[in-house]
Design a protein that fits this description.
Chain A contains 11 helices and 14 strands. With 284 residues, chain A is α+β, with helices and mostly antiparallel strands. The chains are: A alpha+beta (284), B alpha+beta (159). At the A-B interface, helix 2 and helix 6 of A face strand 4 and helix 3 of B.
Amino acid sequence: MISKEFEFFAPVHEAGVLELLDQHGAHATLLAGGMSLVPAMNLGLVEPERLISLNHVTGLDQAVEQDRVLRLGAMLRHVEVARNPLIQRWCPALSTAAGVIGDVQVRHRGTLGGSVAHADPAADYPPVLVAAGAAVRLRSIRGERSVPAGEFFVDLMLTSRAPSELLVEITIPKPAPTARSAHVRFARVEGSFPIVTVAALVDPAAGSIRVGLGGIGPRPVLIELTEDLSDGLTEGALARLAEAAHQASGQAYGDLHADPEYRRAMACVFTQRAVKSALNGARR
Amino acid sequence: MKTSISVSVNDRSHRLEVDTRTILAHLLREQLGLTGTHIGCGTGNCGACTVLLDGQTVKSCCVLAADVNGQSITTIEALSSSLDTLHPIQQAFVENQGLQCGFCTPGMVLSTLQLLGDNPDPSEQEIRHGIAGNLCRCTGYHFIVTSIQDAARRMQGAK
């Protein structure tokens, strides 16, 4: 039993959520899949005064393709992100990442928006979103704004979402037809939070490499490089990737599984692997 | 604080008053007396509390009872009512010694039900992936994997 009393709301329309957020703001906590929040409440680490469940709100779990972007509803469960054909087609790295989060039960319940809003430094989605140049759409009773993923993640479990705002969707620009992407992670045990989690979006035609690096500091970091990829990845390009990953992971933290130095070394290795994997993998 | 919910548990409808702090696992065990759902860690790691929520496995220690209003839940009790009517998955676990203390078994069996529903003929790798959310501290998993392979054969044979 959770020890501290709280008020529980389960609105069925988004407008109801926005009104509650407007009324209670910082005194209300949003509940999506609850895969991080409910354990934290069980442990008494988080004691919300008011809980607003998003699990009964209609229309927040759609994946829609438009001319230039993919629009992904915040309440898409990980299992849907992993198997949705539109996401597999336009952002396969996101599907791959979704398929390795937690375990089957967690993927049935946990959500895209919940994970992104929680902003755990070792979460698998943030580096993919940063590499893909995605944006986070936030809505309040007063209006709507779109924040680039690179700006949304501010610090350890801190985002630029205001207390009155609801994260409604993630928009992902469709990459060039020649682009390829991949997600790789390094964890001691399947389903555990990774030591490093890395996404790469590579366009060999343009010579552009974008790498999102997670698990190595308070927030995901973007690495951008331009390389001549006509003959694949040269030794020089691999060395420059490792150097960039080393520079980007200066805030690497230590925990039970990896000290900062080891984590930083793995950031270099897995950055190289992510880019190799993207180049060798399917398009986009 | 109390809230009122309607749920279907093992095909039986209930209208219940629940404390908003109640997790689904406690609702099942303490309010409905369905003690086959076990609580190990309370933090979403061990999977002993696995149940099906609208046909998909979830960890019932990480779902609030107040949040399942209008939904249907299947617990281990739905699979059989006596030793003579064991589900093929349960029979396979018994015959292959896929358990020792049995604490994790209800969750293992329901994860197997989900796995074989999604993939009737899984490889060993797929089986291990499918039960990654269920921890067993006795068996070392080997006999559990064997049990699931046997269960897959039994369920295919039954079709």
